[in-house]
Amino acid sequence: MVMSVSHLEEAYSATTAFSKPNSQTGWTGLALPDSRLFGTDGIRGKAGDFLTAPLALQIGYWAGQVLRAEVGKVAPIILGQDSRNSSSMLAMALAGGLTAAGLEVWDLGLCPTPAVAYLASMSEAIGGVMISASHNPPEDNGIKFFGADGGKLSLKLQEQIEAALRGNLSQLTTYNGAYGRYCHRSELLQHYCAALQDPLKTAHQDNQPLKGLRVVLDLAWGAATQLAPMTFQALGAEVVCLHDQPDGDRINVNCGSTHLASLKTAVVQHQADLGFAFDGDADRVLAVDAQGRTVDGDYILYLWGCELQRRGELPNNTIVATVMSNLGFERAWEAQGGTLLRTAVGDQYVYAEMKNTGAVLGGEQSGHIICHHYGIGGDGLMTALHLSSLVRNAGTSLTDLLDKSFQPYPQLLQNVRVEDRARRRNWQECEALQQAIAAAEADMGDRGRVLVRASGTEPVIRVMVEAATVELVNHWTSTLVAVVEQHLA
C-alpha cells in the first residue's frame, strides 16, 4: 500500500530518538554533512566513519522508494561489490534497505562496476548499485547508483534520495507494507562476459581473436580478479596475472592503474606484447607497451579513434575528452581531420557530452573509456580487450603504434590532501591561489596551461600543469602545490 507522508513521520517519530528531522540528521538520526552527499561518482567516504552500515541501510531504503516512485512499479535491482573489507557490510546493509522498500535484490557478489551497469540495462531491473570506491585506498568505500538504462543515476533522482535522507519528503510518494527478496545471482555475470566477447568473435569470425598475444594483467586485488583472466583466455590470449586474488587489505595498494611499476617490470620480464592495469572496480584501465611505456587514456582514445575512423564508424570524426587530456593528443587528432570536445573531469560529463553530440567514443586520460558501439559507460575490461584486438589485427606492435601516434606535451599532476571538505570545495575563494594561477598563466602564455580542481572522489586538490618544456612544468607545479599546502591544506 501507499503510506502518506504524515503516517511515515509518525512511524519514524515512534522508532527514533528524535522528534523531527533537520538538515543534518534527516530521518536517519545520523550526522550528515552540510555539503552534498553525492559527488561525481556516487557517495564516497571512509568506511566505518562517514560511510556506515546504518547510513547504507537508509540510503538503500530511500533509493528504493525514489526508484519505485520514478518507474511506477516494483522490479529487481542489481547489486555488486568490490573486494574491500567493508564492501560486504555495506552491501548487506544496502540490501536490507532496498528490500524494506519492496525491491528484489539480485546480488552478483564480487564483480566489476560495468557488469552491474550492463546487467541493469539488459534485464528487467529497475537499476543497479555498486559498492566500491574505485581507485581509492582500502579504507575508503562508496555507493554508485545506475538507472535502468545502465547510465549513472540522474541528478534529479540523486537529489530526491538526498532530500529524503535529510527529511524532506514533500515531493516523494512513499510505499510501505511490501517487502522484497534477496537473491544470489552470480550466474548473471555469464551474460556480461558474453557481451564482452561476442563483438570481437563476430568481427573477426574467429572464436579466439586474441590468439598469439601474451598479455600481463594487473588486477589490483580487486573486482576483476575472476572475470578478466577468464575472458582474455577464452579469446585465446596467453595471460600472466599480477595481484590476482580479491584482497580487501591490499586493493589498489602499490598496484593497479594508479601504480604501474610492477606491471611495467612484468611485461618486460615476460616478454609480453602488452599489459593492462585495472583499478579496484575495473571501470578504468591503463596499458603499457612491450618496452614498459605507459599508454594512458589519451593514447587509447587516439588509437581506437583512428581505427573507428578508418572503418567509418566515428560520427563527425569526434572524440570527447576532458580538460585533463594532453594538448599533444588534441593537435594530433586535429591533424587527422578530427574534432576533440573537452568536458569537465568526470565520466558523467563525458557521457553527457557524448549523448548531446552523438559521439560514440570518449573518455578520460586516467583510463576511463566509453565506446557506445560496445557498451554504455566506462569499462576497463572492454577497453583492454579491444585495444588488444586492435594491436593483433594491425599486424604490428603496440610500441610501433605509439611511435606513430603523437608526442605529448610535458604534463605533471600532483595531489594535495585537503581534509576540510568546505575548504576543498571552495578553493576558488583562496585569493593567494588565484594570484599564483594568474601568474603562471601570464608567464606561460600559449606555451602551456594550468588546471586546478577539487577531486570529486578523494579529499584532494589536484594541480596540473602542462607546458612546452619540462622546466616550466616543474617550476609552476611546485609553486602552485606550495600555495595550496600553505593556504588550504
Question: Explain this structure to me?
Answer:
- By secondary structure, this protein is an alpha/beta fold.
- 39% of the residues lie in helices and 19% in strands.
- It is built from 16 helices and 20 strands.
- It has a 6-stranded mixed sheet, sandwiched between helices. A 5-stranded mixed sheet has the order 10-9-11-12-13, sandwiched between helices. It has a 3-stranded antiparallel sheet with strand order 18-20-19, with helices on one face.
- A hairpin with a 6-residue loop joins strand 11 and strand 12.
Task: List strands and helices in order, with pairings.
Elements: E1 2-3, H1 5-15, E2 43-46, H2 53-71, E3 76-81, H3 87-100, E4 104-110, H4 113-122, E5 128-131, E6 140-146, H5 155-165, E7 174-175, E8 182-184, H6 189-204, E9 214-218, H7 227-234, E10 238-242, H8 261-269, E11 274-278, E12 285-289, E13 294-295, H9 297-310, E14 318-322, H10 327-335, E15 339-343, H11 347-357, E16 361-363, E17 369-371, H12 380-394, H13 398-403, E18 411-417, H14 421-425, H15 431-444, E19 448-454, E20 460-467, H16 470-487
Parallel strand pairs: 3-4, 3-5, 4-8, 9-10, 9-11, 14-15
Antiparallel strand pairs: 1-7, 2-6, 5-6, 11-12, 12-13, 16-17, 18-20, 19-20
